[in-house]
Amino acid sequence: MKEEISKKLNQILLKRTGIDFQKQEELQTEDFFGGKIKIPARELVLICFDIENEFSIQIPERELLAGSVKNYVRMKHMVENLLRLYRLTVEITGRRR
């Protein structure tokens, strides 16, 4: 499951930034806004929309404020955690969105 998440997330970022984070692993911990990457804020918003659509999740505002979209590694962990939370919610309530 984690490999599938990484692959899909990488495809989204590759489409939006032109950077293949799986091939350029040294960039996975670089901040999106500074240094080597410099993703414009509006592009990061579109990346978040793409993630929500691809994974059928909603990114809570608290995740954005906590810096969960600061770099590839943090973004990947956020998606994994949100998917885990969604699965647990479905198990407990029996309801899907």
Walk me through the structure.
The chain is mainly α and 97 residues long. It has helices at 2-17, 41-55, 61-65, 72-93. Helix 1 (2-17) runs antiparallel to helix 2. The protein is globular.
Present the secondary structure layout.
Blueprint lengths: L1 H16 L23 H15 L5 H5 L6 H22 L4
Helix pairs in contact: 1-2
Describe the largest sheet: none
Question: Helical region count?
Answer: 4
Structural class: mainly alpha
Unreliable parts: none
Number of strands: 0
Order of helices and strands: HHHH
Q: For the record, give the distance between the C-alpha atoms at the N and C termini, rounded to a whole number.
A: 20 Å
Report Rg: 14 Å
Q: Roughly what fraction of the amino acids lie in strands? A: under 5%
Helix content: 55-70%
Outline of the structure:
This protein has helices at 2-17, 41-55, 61-65, 72-93. The protein is mainly α.
Keywords:
97 residues; mainly alpha; 4 helices; 0% strand; globular
